[in-house]
Amino acid sequence: MKYIPLEEYTKAWIFRHRDLPVSEEDLAQINPLTESRAEQIWSEHVSRGCSHPEHFGEGDWAAKDKNWSEKDFWQSAWDSQSNEMPELLSTHLAEWDDNITVYFCYQSDHIIETKWGVFRRNWKNFLFFDNGPVLLGRKRKQVAQFFDNGSYRLGIRT
């Protein structure tokens, strides 16, 4: 089994929040990964040596400053009435097609797979948990990482 049914996902409330409704069509495309599948994706694309973004080490691409180019803040866009993502983030990921599979990686055993279009429309819901998650696209080098101080950074996965 690759996915946890959304109705069994313990943190599904982030997608059912009354102030940030997610369409039924989008809910059907939000797929929390099973622990074993999440750990596989994490190991292949994020880190082989740590289980949480707060613990990236020397061997992790995410720990190397050279892989990160720009920083900005997401909190004011999240707090606004608009559903638009921060402009710098949108620009960094502009070449991603809505059908690209993306992974929102909270930690090694907690990853959500969806499509870029679904994430883009519902990005605020994903950021209810903001302690370092990494957004990456399948077969894409561009990445973003979000922090609980309301900032994010953009980079290239090596």
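[next item in queue]
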Amino acid sequence: MRKNKVDIITLGCSKNLVDSEQLMRQFVANGYTVAHDADKINGEIVVVNTCGFIGDAQEESINMILELGEAKKKGRIGELYVMGCLSERFLTEMKKELPEVDRFYGKFNWKELITDMGKSYKKELASDRVLTTPSHYGYLKIAEGCDRTCSYCSIPIITGRYQSRPMEEIEDEVKRLVSQGVKEFQVIAQDLTYYGLDVYKRMALPELLERISDIQGVKWIRLHYAYPARFPYDLLRVMRERENICNYLDIALQHISDPMLKLMRRNITKAETYELLQRMRTEVPGIHLRTTLMVGHPGETEQDFDELVEFTRKIRFERMGAFAYSHETGTYAHKKYSDDIPQEVKQERLDYLMRVQEGIAAEINEAKVGQVLEVVIDREDDDFYIGRTQFDSPEVDPEVLINKSKPLSVGEFYKVQIERAEAFDLYGKPV
């Protein structure tokens, strides 16, 4: 065990990561050495920031806590704290079942962790962070919570009502991060397109993006995650007009058949979804769309699934993920529907859909061979510089592997000619 060292482990999404980064800043301000997702976890204090979204994520969080509990018994680590979405959702049960944890905190009261340790929470550093990402990019969380009522989703139960951050506060954070060398911003919220409705009484994302894109030093802005119903079309104008807003939009559509969209409480129809996607492709030429689709929601018939496959083939999403429905306690679907589709059927549908998408992704990547694209370098290994185009978000999208015919620097942008393509990677040479 290392005295005065804090290990922080983040599970789940990038919104959790921002919380961890803010907590790390507070520990540093109180004189601790802090490591994030370290190879060797041996801190005097260990904090696990948990995910509680679906069963698999919950299981991962519990397994991590149990593993650390064993390390604590053997004296390899000191105090063990748990925070985040899982403990926000199942606090009572976790306190009873996991006595090896010294204290639990939820999604929002983790600031008390600092004061409970007898240290000082520094309000003036509330939005400061220790970046865990490569120094040239960071995540920018513009809101918390969600006001949508999708049948399957536990996130509103965990996070509560939508809370937009003030524009001025976000602008200040961007300026501060730019001064630290950040050039690329992944703008995140559970629902970007709702931004502003709670505090400004209007969809203010287009204005916010104009203000961020005006800040000197902001090279790329990438958007995660839009909601399809009542989409703010002025956003497309801003994306088209502003060169530093990437031609990339992450918009979780979940399904396409009208019966399923109704059961899922998505507040949009099949026809409206097709119209939305057509407008996006028309108004923002070259846009790359990332989406997430769900299989196995209660009531999904073979016909519904066939429509989903046809939709995937027709739209040809540049980036797509999918997951099987998870019957989550407290959700509308859990209360109203029975989990009537066998797990093996869910898995078969998921595997088939992803095979279809893999073929599409390979063809889309193949079409890039011969093109010269701007690429940011994220890291270097023995054989390649590894980077991304404006169409690729870190960790979830394809990478560009660049030969070492010229010396390149991590965090810088270069023109790269694409020479070869695979389903999920491109290969190129610096121009």
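[queue empty]
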